[in-house]
Amino acid sequence: MTNGHDEAFHGIDLAPGDEHVEAGGIAQRVLGYLTGLGLAILLTATSFFVAGTSLVWEPSIPVALVVLAIAQMGVHVVFFLHITTGADNTNNVLALAFGILIVMLVMTGSLWIMSNLNHNNMMPMDQLMRMQR
Amino acid sequence: MSTIALTEDHHGGSTAVRDWSGPASKRIVTGFGFWIFILSDMVMFSAFFATYAVLLGQTAGGPSGRDLFDLRNVAIETGFLLASSFTCGLGTIAVDARNKLWFQVSMAITCVFGLAFLTIELREFSSLVARGAGPTRSAFLSAFFTLVGCHGMHVSAGILWLLTMMAQVYAKGFRADIQRRLLCFALFWHALDIIWIAVFTVVYLLGSAK
Q1: Cβ(B16)–Cβ(B2) under 8 Å?
Q2: Measured between CB atoms, which of B27, B36, B205 is closest to A51?
Q3: Alpha-carbon span B155 to B88, nearest angstrom
Q4: B8: which residues sit within 8 A by CB, 6+ positions away?
Q5: Which H/E stretch holds residue B134?
Q6: pLDDT band per the 50, 70, 90 thresholds, residue A133
Q7: Residues of A with CB below 8 A from B21's CB?
Q8: Is residue A3 part of a domain?
Q9: Closest approach of chain B CAs to the CA of A130, in angstroms?
Q10: Which residue out of A78, A106, A113 would a mutagenesis test of the B interface target, given it has the greatest number of B Cβ atoms within 10 Å?
Q11: Is residue A43 part of a domain?
């Protein structure tokens, strides 16, 4: 059985198992970062445009901003952090999924509970007094 | 990480076929460990974000986000941080190409962009405090300074780390352990940019919405 790692280290003086060289030529990888940069600029510009414009139906703006932000995070994760669906990335993706779960729980949980509390506190004072009797 | 596939042979039994033997390389293990740290950092930030979102309206009669935030400034900050993320990526490629000059130049540019970002942020903070909108003014402003300040502290720490890595590469070259540190640094720097996306969206754009 041959060590599948050998091919990856042609021409470079490395201890096996110590490190690896990213696949793809330099030009290809620069192009990858440029793609990510272009997409990120596009999404950021759209975000700032949507926030300042009156062309978009106003109640939809917060949702649009959140969607744009999540899309841009996705772009960064793929093009800059290189968290992919590749075989050596399974653990990273699983950890990311768990992280997203916790972040969502913290954010939506806090907002949900606090908006409920605010809603209950909105009651006019006399009504509150009547309830206490 | 080794993959073991079970294949059916002609006799109906199964044989274990391993297409790769041995443990994962140190680089992958280090990257995974640092990725866990970044994710836990993001969980911490999510608590700050939740606090900010909850306290957004609690201005105690003081100024609200719409009165205070200058979106043009924020756009420039965003541009600097995004550009620094890109040059950091170029530095990562330079490491794999074993090109010291290219690495040092791209890291120096990353550092300058990061410092420009920090300068704009600190000027914004000091102008807020000078206008009487410091962190003690209202719950909203406390949450604002905590969240954005925490991100700024991360960027400051990142710049210190960046300078350390430039010195280490200069003194020791692209050794295997130095390369793993560079991998972690790149992860950290890109993660800061991801958190900034959430900051400019939630804090500035949503915070100054009508």
Answers
A1: no
A2: B205
A3: 13
A4: B14
A5: none
A6: low
A7: 1, 3
A8: no
A9: 27
A10: A106
A11: yes
Backbone phi, psi, residue A104, to 5°: -65, -40
pLDDT tens, residue by residue, B51-67: 999 998 888 888 888 88
The length of chain A is 133
Domain contains A37: yes
Pick A22's closest partner by Cβ from B35, B96, B180.
Answer: B96
| Domain encompassing residue A118 | 87-133
Query: What is the least distance, in Å, from the CA of A75 to any CA of chain B?
Result: 10
Same domain, A74 and A128: no
Indicate whether this complex's ipTM tops 0.90.
Answer: no
CB B78 within 8 A of CB A37: no
Sketch out chain B's domains with CATH numbers: 26-205 (1.20.120.80)
- Chain B contact set for A36 (CB, 8 A): 86, 89
pTM for this entry: 0.83
Count interface pairs A-B at CB distance under 8 A: 142
For residues A45 and A91, state if they share a domain. Answer: no
Chain B CA closest to residue A88: B1
Task: Please provide the average confidence, as pLDDT, over all residues in chain B.
Answer: 89
For residue range B133-180, list pLDDT tens digits in order: 999 999 999 999 999 999 999 999 999 999 999 999 999 999 999 999
